[in-house]
Amino acid sequence: MLEVCPGRASKKGPMTSSGGEALLATPASCEQAGSDRMFLGSIALHKTLPCLAEPGKIIVVGRPSSSLAHVLLYLAALPTVIAFNPSTGALTIRRRPGLIALDSGQVGITQVADVEEGMRLLEALTEAINATWEHRLELVPATTGRRAPRPLDLWELFPRTNCRQCGEATCMAFAFGLIQGARSLNACAPLLNDPESGEPLSALSGMLLATVFRVR
After folding, report:
1. What φ, ψ does residue 204 adopt, rounded to 5°?
2. Burial class (CB in 10 A: 0-12, 13-18, 19+), 117
3. Distance between CA atoms of 111 and 119, rounded to whole angstroms?
């Protein structure tokens, strides 16, 4: 859960979409954004992608109505940020379930049931961004990055069989390919076919969202 205004007790619980999905946990004071202070008008659905972390679900990709560049430093101050690169503005935040990836011109939300849910989540994310912007003076903007994953970080979550089914000679070579954007997780058959791979797949998807996931 994401605390937008640190140090204040939440009275209303997590911010939700119109369908009731919890997206970002914001204290009551952050849920009372005035329309005159609205930062972002909307986030429009751009496209959907299959979600490898949870087969049968999708990644929704949205385009904000205006640049998120000025608000990203404040969003990056939230406690559940996984990775942030201030030079590129790439930000990845954990939600429950799944992840949210943002840069100045797009957002991606993983582990979404369908397009209808995705639309509700994009609406809720718009509200959360506006609440963060309204209360930005209560936040300390992030000015330093959080480390992106290394190939070794990915390799540790692989089956490490060096089976070569992905087309690489070793699992470490496959990890380098993922970091560089030359390979896709769905090429690792042992990982995808393991019924207990849900948690490693989710973790790997999060790492890749922070590095090579760019859905333009």
Report:
1. -65, -40
2. middle
3. 13
Let me know: does 100 contact 108? Beta carbons within 8 Å: yes
pLDDT digits (tens, 9 = 90+) for 34-69: 444 689 999 999 999 988 777 789 999 999 999 999
Alpha helices in the chain (DSSP H): 69-75, 115-134, 151-155, 171-180, 189-192, 198-209
- The amino acid occupying position 23 is L
Identity at 209, one-letter amino acid code: L
Domains of the chain plus CATH, in order, are 14-138 (no CATH), 151-209 (1.10.15.40)
pTM of the model: 0.63
What distance in Å separates the CA atoms of residue 9 and residue 195, rounded to the nearest whole number?
40
**pLDDT of 198 above 70:** yes
Q: What is the pLDDT of residues 179-191, one digit of tens each?
A: 766 788 889 999 8
186 Cβ partners below 8 Å, 6+ apart? 52, 192
Tens-digit pLDDT profile for residues 82-101: 788 888 888 988 787 778 99
pLDDT for the residue 107? 96
- Look-up of token digits 């979409």: 17
